Predict the 3D structure of the following.
Amino acid sequence: MQVYDRVTTELMTTCQTLMFEYPLVAEHKRIVAEIATSLGRVTALIEQADQYTEPSARREWLHDLRTPLNVVLGYAQLLSLLTTDDELRCRMETLQGRTMMLSRSIDATYDVPKAMKV
């Protein structure tokens, strides 16, 4: 769980920096707030992982985890397309990359293909 904690903390820090230290227009702030909310949900679900040992419960947990991860990816992609600011675009691309890394790490740890077949 330490790897997940580090990555989710890093992602949340990026969102907080953007919200409070970066000059965003209102619509961009709303998108970053949605990303932060979804990251909070990811963090909460990761913390609950050990509770889901039964295959059907694990499948449901994995599905529930995918939804906020996809929200983060989608909003980060949207914001990188909407902005004309190169630094913000770079931050969103970094956020996308870290989120995809987190997703692949979860796949490897929880053997997603096996869990989905059961």
